[in-house]
Amino acid sequence: MCIWIGIDDTDSNKGGCTTYLGYRIISQLIERGYDIIGYPRLVRLNPNIPWKTRGNGAVAFRVGRGKGRKILIGEIRGNKIFSYSSEENSQIDIDDIKALVEREIESFAFLSDENTNSGYVMTKEKPDRSLYETCVKGIAYLDDVIKILDSLGAIYRGYKNGRGLIGASAAVSWEPIDRTFEIITYRYREKWGTGRDVDKISVIEMDKTINSTFDNYDYDNDRVLITPNSPCPILFGIRGENPDDLFKAKDMIRSEDYEGWIIFETNQGTDDHIERKKIIDIKPYESVIVEGVIEKDPYTIKGGHVIFSVKDETSSIDCTAYEPTKNFRDIVRKLRVGDVVEVYGGVREEPFTINIEKIRIKKLVRIKKKVENPICDNCRIHMKSLGRDKGYRCRRCGAIKSEDEAKFEILERGLREGFYEVPPCARRHLSKPLKRFVS
Ligand code: ATP
Questions:
Q1: Residue 377: its pLDDT value, please?
Q2: Phi, psi for residue 319 in degrees, rounded to 5
């Protein structure tokens, strides 16, 4: 017999990390003779919900007795942690596992923080993948999740307002269609909250060597991206396409010593959160792909955010490249009325706007710029404009010419059709980097 365990909402802005709790529980389960089946999972959920702490991540893993291929998934204080490729049909002590999970949550979750509402789920049967779909794309309600858990005969507990049960259950229900991996290292406890010692040069070398990794370093903005900014136990996390390359990548990083590491299978970098929509159907907190025509030229507001408006046959909506998207805004500023674009991004409620993650320019309009008034055929002098779109008249002989007989130049747009993305430093966990698009 095998059970899935899901955990969420254990950290706060002051510290903690649900992946760390997962790593602790997994290593203790293995010490007690249980096995992990497959890779542990780090599942990111709707990035637009207002009550997330940071990246809206939840953790899930499968426990039982393993057989088949042994898979290296981590290390704690020098001891390697393995999982198994398949499960054996034998009994496990659910009460023992439950007690361990509760003890760990109660001692490591930041339950004293008013926004931390931890939850865990233990279930033999996974909730349907549709729960994951709802939680990654929209909003789920605790009552509905509890009904699902009861119908599966799951064991669960929600602390305080119990909201963590939503993410915990959704993480268990994830069935990867696309997936990536992240290898995460954890600091010694005495180092928590202090500055991280991770050598930038080694991060750049690793980034240039291990091509299947992504979002390690932002070259334009000179930012190391593998280290978090919060006081959490993570030293660094490297994202990539496959575990073997991530082991090599981790070993290339020169840093302070760390207590251990673990590798997660994740939905990061998959665009799982995004859905193609007509503008009229867009609701706050969703993430969408919208195709339309630029209706209003971009303009910059206080704070450096750049806004344009796009319309399709149903309605129109504002799209914003926020200040943290840095040089991406220079691309957005070059868009003009009539350009056809596909905008990818999360929908904010107030102001109602799409927070742009990527943009595909499908068609650039040809913009003609007048450079010279027409010349009169009789008098060989420049003719005078009769006003906007009214044509031209010769001052001397009174001859008339139409508007399009002036001399025009096609404006150099400084932009090509194709995909553009925000820089890695502004990327959302779920957003698929262009590097992962197969051309
Ligand atoms: P973590 O702490 O796990 O790293 P985080 O800090 O960004 O992630 P949480 O503290 O987990 O965010 O807070 C998110 C809360 O929102 C959790 O209680 C989770 O169950 C809940 N939640 C996540 N996605 C949804 C959703 N789509 N609808 C409703 N509630 C959600």
A1: 94
A2: -125, 135
**Per-run averaged pLDDT (10 residues), the chain, 439 residues:** 94 85 96 96 95 88 95 95 92 95 93 92 97 97 98 97 97 98 97 96 98 97 96 96 98 98 98 98 97 97 97 98 97 97 96 97 94 95 93 95 93 94 97 90
Ligand 1, residue 17: give the atom nearest the CA.
Answer: 4
CA distance 417 to 313: 22
Nearest partner of 266 among 392, 153, 181, judged by Cα: 181
Task: Find the 167 Cα to ligand 1 centroid distance in Å.
Answer: 6
Count of residues in the chain: 439
Ligand 1 atom closest to Cα of residue 134: 27
Distance (Å) from CA 114 to ligand 1 centroid: 14
- Residues near ligand 1 with C-beta < 6 Å? 8-9, 11, 18, 45-46, 49, 51-58, 117, 135, 139-140, 163-164, 166-167
Ligand 1 centroid–CA 70 distance in Å is 32
Ligand 1, atom 15, lies closest to the CA of 52
Pairing of β 316-321 and β 353-363:
parallel
- Please answer whether residues 27 and 36 qualify as being in contact, where contact means their C-beta atoms are separated by less than 8 angstroms: no
- Cα(423)–Cα(433) distance, integer angstroms: 9
**What integer pLDDT is reported at residue 89 of this predicted model?**
84
Q: What domains can be seen in the chain, in order of their start residue?
A: 3-173 (3.30.70.2200), 180-266 (3.90.600.20), 274-365+414-436 (2.40.50.1010), 368-410 (no CATH)
**What pLDDT score was predicted for residue 14?**
79
Contact (CB, 8 A) for 62 and 36? yes
Residue 292 Cα to ligand 1 midpoint, Å, equals 32
State how far the Cα of 94 lies from the Cα of 64, in Å rounded to an integer.
Answer: 10
Q: Which two tokens stand for residue 42?
A: 């780090």
Three-state secondary-structure class, residue 87: strand
What is the model's pLDDT at position 439? 56
